[in-house]
Amino acid sequence: MIAYNLDNIKKELPSGVKLVAVSKFHPFEAILEAYSEGQTAFGENRPQEFAMKALQLPPDIEWHFIGHLQTNKLKLVLPYAYLVESIDTLHLLEAVNTWGEKNAKIINILLEVHIGAEESKQGFTPSEIKAVLNMTAEFPYVRFCGLMGMASHTDDEEAIRADFARIKALYDECRAEHPELEDFKELSIGMSDDWRLALDYGCTEVRIGTAIFGNRQY
Ligand SMILES: *Cc1c(COP(=O)(O)O)cnc(C)c1O
Q1: Is the Cβ atom of 210 under 6 angstroms away from ligand 1?
Q2: Residue 98 burial (C-beta neighbours within 10 Å; 0-12, 13-18, 19+)
């Protein structure tokens, strides 16, 4: 089933859009099944689980951290992360930069945008994003690679499109205002229920869990 789901998604996904398979709460076997189909980018949202999977699964897997990250959990995530997509406070950004300096590692990050989805209180507002991007020189151990966002959790397609349009507009403004940020080129939007819509808004990455692995066991 995992192979079949992956295959169908990959058929529809334009070649420039990266698929991150969100494997949170799913066992090693599920990840290995996707991996054997050629899937190499996986997303996890809990530090302990992230570290355990990163340490025990094949070393060429590209691990994306997509969950809320507390500053006392950095050592579980930053050594293994290809990309931390969920930087949502200045405090966290500062802590990541400090960790990077101590460990001589530049950390790739996305800034998480809060675009009005009621369910999620996480993320910077658009004006906070602008403010952060004006102070990137203060974070030499952080590589600013783009934005991540979630649309409102609703069946209302127009509401989802409006969210995606707002984040895309913000992304375009950020890029126009900061040509010096050469790596700022990722727009991570789109999940199982709305990734096809996200394609219309220039996403460069989609994060899909349920539509690949089935329902999560909590
Ligand atoms: C769980 C999660 C996803 C994947 O959700 P699905 O609906 O299962 O595709 C994507 N992004 C984030 C930030 C998540 O926490």
Answers
A1: yes
A2: middle
